[in-house]
Amino acid sequence: MQPDHVPDLDHLQRAYAETKKATVVTPLLEAPAIAALSGAAHVFVKSESLQWTGSFKSRGAYWRLKTLSADEAQKGVVAYSSGNFAQGLAASGQRLGIPVTMVMPMDAPAAKRDATAGYGARVVLTDHGARAREEVASERARQIAEDEGLTLLHPFDHPEVVAGQAGVGIEALAQLDERGAKADFVFVPTGGGGLVSGVSLAFKYLSPATQMVVVEPERFNGMGASLEAGSAQTVPLTTPPSICDGMMARRPGVATFAAMSTIGALPVTVADDAVRSAMRIAFEKLKLVFEPSAASSLAALLSGSVDVRGKAVLVVATGGNVGLADFMRHIADA
User: Fold this and answer.
1) Alpha-carbon distance values, 243 to 51, 221, 271, 295 (Å)
2) What pLDDT score was predicted for residue 108?
3) Out of 262, 286, 296, 332, which residue is the most buried by the measure of CB atoms under 10 Å away?
């Protein structure tokens, strides 16, 4: 399969038919309080924070492992991630009996490192210094793959990962249909683009009138800048970090940019302070705990950067893997 292959609807549905056997059907919650704050007619929140690994990442990770050959599965895999893909891959590997080695930056959240090890993965930590953390981690993962004969997996840049993550969109569309509702806008947090490309393809095929909104942290807008330029762009290495640790990819993937180039999505960015506020609002109004990356889509909706007055909005909240101390600190600072 070519790196820039764009999965069709049949591909997405085959992936979802398999991954739904190993994932939770996460709730689609209607949020009148959020609708009132945003001016939307209806707001629905797809809370992947309630997925069994605490995020959507287990969907793409599980499907990617299911596409391995028998020999690849027997030898095991190595990948790199700052957290949620690490947990999703480790848990999926444990379920399928596939050995997983995960390379993680030393500054990845401790809760995510501990959870990855707890699912039985071998965790290798890297110190990236002044270099981009994904570059250092990917180099180490590549070396381990060569030295040990393991299959190297990318956390987002593969058509099968895109196909697996599309399950979020397929599932949400079915839940909306059960309520007799359609989404005018879908807000999706975006790092390297695995989730947003999968969800966007699902809506392109099944609800083409829906406008996709690509949400990124300020300064880490690689996907948005790439869509506007018409070619892949890279965020400068000197960019200060965001509290949205899962969204600090400096460049979209080949597979994810190829998919998003067919969509016509609207890119927006959010500030860390807006994300903190959204975390607090989600806790107070929805009784949900979101990690910063997950709250970014809600922050974008509430920022008013997209006119949603009188419209139906779907907000994808990607995960809830945040330590208690960090969560309390963020909402206290909101």
Assistant:
1) 22, 14, 9, 11
2) 81
3) 296
Dihedral pair phi/psi, residue 162, rounded to 5°: -55, -45
**E strand or H helix at 34, and its extent?**
helix 32-38
Cα–Cα dist 21/56, whole Å: 14
Position 214: which residue type? V
Identify the bridge partners of residue 28 per DSSP, sorted by sequence position. 46
Alpha carbons within 13 angstroms on the beta-carbon side of residue 217 total: 26
What's the rounded Cα separation, in Å, for the pair 133 and 107? 9
CA proximity to 4, closest of 202, 262, 257: 257
Tens of pLDDT, residue by residue over 200-212, are 999 999 999 999 9
Which residue is it, tokens 């919650």? 29
For residue 98 the two structure tokens come to 């596939």
- Contacts for 113 with CB less than 8 Å, ≥ 6 apart: 83, 86, 104, 123, 125
pLDDT of residue 127: 86
- pLDDT mean across residues, the chain: 94
